[in-house]
Fold:
Amino acid sequence: MTPELIDPEVAAATFDTHLRDFFTSGRGRGEGWCRIDLDDLHTVVQLPAVRENGTVDCYFVRLGAEYYDVWPPTVAFVRKTQTGEWVEAAEGTRWWPNQRNAPGFSFGLHPRYAYPDQSIRQLVCFSHSFDYYLSSHTANDPERWRHGTHTVSATLSRIAQALHAPNYIGPSGDRDS
Amino acid sequence: MSNHQTAEAAPGKDLTVVIHDEDSGGQPHQVHAGPGTPVREVIDRFYKELATRAPGRRPPVLPGDRPERVLARRGAPGRLPEHELHGA
Structure:
């Protein structure tokens, strides 16, 4: 099935509703969570990652709703530049996590992934990220995104699980960029 | 399905188990039980409630949803005269 763009007003309304739910009654109520809207279809979410010793690191993920919610949101770890732009985070910086692939579901982080269309960019590799379906991965049936059941809550909650000890080690480096 | 649960109780008091469905988000499920209620009964009640919501606990977005969803987001009333819907 080839993904098709969703009517932007419908996608934005659905995305906003589900994000509001997440921040009012889901994990988003907790400490360390924050929502920074970029435009109607794009939001940066600050989320806490917890190391084995209890240290909390904050990361930023940019979510995109172009295909939402027939498909999951696009997901990328980002950092803010000095000029205020949000750009993809690189491995070896404090904005890219060092994560062990054992959160109880398939999850992987690829800082530079070669997509079938020849582009090379980040892939937050799990079945609740849109880019996963553009990559050469195939989700098992129980893990596949289900329209009408899964929302951005599933996306953010799974990232939070992946970024919690013992699955999460710490930042991948000390550099800022 | 991804859930996390919270519960608060004192000995001999009522118990409320709150279960968050993190797949679909939204308001959490709540199961209330009085003193002496077997844990199994609480679990059974939860699954009974869950079964009434699943599958597809949220209605999918369909083309016909467009006016209501967009207007709801703009904080407008659920129904407006037709000329307002079409921006005339």
